[in-house]
């Protein structure tokens, strides 16, 4: 009988999850000169590279470390207790595992509107240029672009729409309400 504790050539080796560092960061509507933060998806070990966004349980266990910030997955249930814990974080990253997963928008909006979070909310993961305006309207202040996304396209996308009909986290009144207020 073969010894299963010794891997053979047909067994898959475990991969080490290296922290991800994105070169193109849009922060507050502008291309950031640099991005000091990396994103670590490893839930078991703290990254050597700092500052870093780390999975929520790892951040909760080390929340006194000012060089760490929480990374929320798209399935995070944002409760009042969790929001209270997150209020001490200087920044929060929300992961988009796929551009088709829109749950991160809801998390950002809840952080801003229901829980009045004022720090940086950063979109990480599968972030595409055509999502940036919607992300900003939901409360993201920074977006780490996927490697194949061009920063000039991102900046154009953010300035493409000048008037919005619906309210959002930046503009609390609908267009008709603003026009009505101006006419009075």
Task: Outline the fold blueprint.
Elements: E1 25-27, E2 30-31, E3 38-39, E4 52-55, H1 56-61, E5 68-72, H2 80-86, E6 91-96, H3 103-114, E7 120-125, H4 132-138, E8 142-144, H5 151-159, H6 175-183
Parallel strand pairs: 3-4, 4-5, 5-6, 6-7, 7-8
Antiparallel strand pairs: 1-2, 1-8
Helix pairs in contact: 3-4
Q: Can you walk me through this structure?
A:
The chain is an alpha/beta fold and 184 residues long. It has helices spanning 56-61, 80-86, 103-114, 132-138, 151-159, 175-183; strands at 25-27, 30-31, 38-39, 52-55, 68-72, 91-96, 120-125, 142-144. An eight-stranded mixed beta sheet has the order 2-1-8-7-6-5-4-3. Strand 7 (120-125), helix 4 and strand 8 (142-144) form a beta-alpha-beta unit. Helix 3 packs parallel to helix 4 (132-138). The chain is globular. Mean pLDDT is 83; it is low at 1-6 and 9-16.
Q: Give me the Rg, rounded.
A: 19 Å
Low-confidence stretches: 1-6, 9-16
Number of discrete helical segments: 6
| Portion in helices | 25-40%
Descriptors:
184 residues, eight-stranded mixed beta sheet, disordered N terminus, alpha/beta
Short description:
The chain is of the alpha/beta class and 184 residues long. It has helices at 56-61, 80-86, 103-114, 132-138, 151-159, 175-183; strands at 25-27, 30-31, 38-39, 52-55, 68-72, 91-96, 120-125, 142-144.
């Amino acid at each position: 009988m073969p010894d299963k504790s010794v891997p053979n050539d047909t067994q898959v080796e475990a991969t080490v999850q290296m922290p991800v560092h994105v070169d193109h960061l849009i922060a507050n509507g502008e291309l950031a000169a640099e991005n000091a933060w990396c994103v670590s998806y490893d839930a078991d070990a703290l990254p050597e590279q700092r500052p870093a966004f780390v999975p929520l349980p790892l951040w909760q266990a080390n929340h006194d470390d000012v060089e760490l910030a929480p990374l929320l997955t798209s399935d995070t249930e944002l409760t009042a207790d969790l929001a209270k814990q997150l209020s001490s974080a200087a920044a929060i990253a929300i992961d988009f595992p796929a551009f088709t997963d829109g749950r991160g928008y809801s998390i950002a909006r809840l952080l801003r509107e229901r829980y009045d979070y004022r720090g940086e909310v950063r979109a990480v993961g599968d972030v595409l240029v055509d999502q940036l305006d919607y992300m900003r309207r939901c409360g993201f202040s920074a977006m780490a672009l996927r490697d194949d996304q061009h920063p000039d396209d991102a900046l154009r996308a953010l300035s493409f729409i000048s008037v919005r009909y619906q309210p959002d986290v930046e503009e609390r009144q609908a267009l008709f309400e603003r026009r009505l207020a101006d006419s009075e």
